[in-house]
């Protein structure tokens, strides 16, 4: 669980610190094209991504079940905290905000849009997507730190 959640944290951090700032300087059309291509790889079921992303969710749910049965005291609370933060503050915003924004970009016929329509589409997407990605990046880091502390306590 810690490894998979750390890989997800690295992915969202990479988008927050490199990918999105890297494409931010592009024209509206090129920005939307670039994001649509990157997201298209994910939406087409890129195997390594799917194993890590879905695996992190499944392993976190398994951790909650097994941890609730086997842990007590501080370890139990820390496990619940780490898992809750990960599921609610990383996966929750992903499902509620980032994926719908991604889907809106996937639905665009970018080449047929006017400059004004491109600017509007980018404005509707870029700010909200980046805000929620920054939120889930911080949440993912907090969750991973809590999981690492839990492992240290259980050693």
- Global structural class: mainly alpha
Order of helices and strands: HHHHH
Share of β-strand residues: under 5%
Percentage of helical residues? over 70%
Shape designation: elongated
List the helices and strands and how they pair.
Blueprint: H1 2-24, H2 28-43, H3 47-70, H4 73-107, H5 115-154
Description of the structure:
By secondary structure, the protein is an all-alpha fold. It has helices spanning 2-24, 28-43, 47-70, 73-107, 115-154. The longest helix has 40 residues, at 115-154. The two termini are 16 Å apart.
Brief overview:
By secondary structure, the chain is an all-alpha fold. It is built from five helices and no strands. The radius of gyration is 18 Å and the shape is elongated.
List keywords for this structure.
5 helices, 155 residues, mainly alpha
